[in-house]
């Protein structure tokens, strides 16, 4: 009897075996049939890259792990293994952060709980769920040695919990910029680990989005996960050629396949030519390649405290090459769908090469209109083909930004200047400076001094609207308009009648249509001078051009239409000012008036009186104008 008791004691009280996370996962984790086609005992041979990433987490030298991978790469299974390992093998307080509360609930109910129930050795690790058990809820589970909290990145209350040794951030590139009003959700979550110093584990898992870029103010935009990857060891997944044995990263751009016409790609035609021997690698070779695949560190000398891993789409466990090729053919012609394909199916960052090329192309136009003349008498701000100046003012909380544009036939546009007037718009000083600036006159190529014909001032900020109304109202007779962007993407460019406000009038303008017009014109071929063409001078800095191109078209599910919105983490003051300046032109100057002004500006008699001769100008009538809008009457008080 005593021997039986001792045997039972030894069986139940012996210490757990010392296992790496991958060894533990293959011994204890069973995947349920309800959530995966790979049901049964977890086999990492199907996704061998997970073995290295898991073992990096259980390595005591490593505190931070970043894992960048596409869909169909078993990222969710990886996250479940991490949670259960630190509940069973190394019991520790944990926090799992999903992009939203609903995704956190789905992770707990739809993936974690079924896996626990299917794994005999783990069943009951969080206790027996009861309807009124506060220790085992959907988003909070207690276990021997710790507690698991599952939160949404949009919930500051869920992030600001008790100290945690393990924090896992899942799909970080879908996180909001701020958790409520409390700041970056990743920084808030990381703060929970400070008590554990060198034993903490921070895991970041995601599919990437846009390539990270940093603006002139040091602010980052783009994929947060990819930035984390670049700060780590930068390990890439390589597979050996079955013919010559050369290790290589399988990239989609080298994949070859037959032309299927309008149908799906034939799997028999798909192959990958080796980068060395050029022999075809097919799907049939993948099992033997996986067995010998490996990660290779590309950042030499990087500390093992932060290991970062990247797996591309052709190496994903459940991705089929012919299906990837078919999906690419369907989505390659639309930038929106192509971006989704690159991010989720291939696991690579999106870089809008066209926007970058467009920025470089526009910067080549940024030259003085007077040809860098050193002769002050010959210098001018406005070229001969422009005759009307309008300004757009964007109101910020600490400054006013003003763009001045010159206009010619068919709304051909020339940038004259972009200024920043620093000051608090709730105080009169900055508005007095704007009055002084508005009174300036600008030198025309003919020698004439041009005043600003009209100005549109942004009144879209509710906190600043009353200050804008009070400044614009007494100047409405001088064609100074308070404007606000209309919410509807189909709103007319300018209103038929203004809205009455106290004091003055408010003009609701169609910013979606105005932005569409600007972007269509900015895309006109370089050098195609004429109606609609946009000219830039030496005052167009790189930051100004980035802001001018800072908008993108996205689908709006509410209106079921595409609308122009600012790119993520991108300043667009220059684009806003351009919209307001164009609105000021449409509100103040009819096409016929613009043609008449240009005739007078370049009349030989006028040139003789000013002492400057100008070449004959090709005139047009209002009916000949390119992209001209309907005449809009001025709105006087």
Protein architecture, described:
The chain has 637 residues and is α/β, with parallel strands linked by helices. It has 19 helices and 28 strands. The strands form seven sheets. Strands 3, 4, 5, 6, 7, 8, 11, 12, 15 and 16 form a ten-stranded mixed sheet that branches. The protein has an eight-stranded mixed sheet with strand order 24-25-23-22-17-18-19-26. Strands 1-2 form a two-stranded antiparallel sheet. Helix 10 runs antiparallel to helix 11. The termini are far apart. The C terminus is likely disordered.
What is the helical fraction, as a range of percent? 25-40%
- Percent range for β-strand residues: 15-25%
Tell me about the biggest sheet? 10 strands, mixed
Q: With helices defined by DSSP (H or I, 4 residues minimum), what is the helix count? A: 19
- What does the radius of gyration come to? 32 Å
> What is the count of structural domains?
2
Total strands: the figure is 28
- Integer average pLDDT: 86
CATH superfamily of the largest domain: P-loop containing nucleotide triphosphate hydrolases
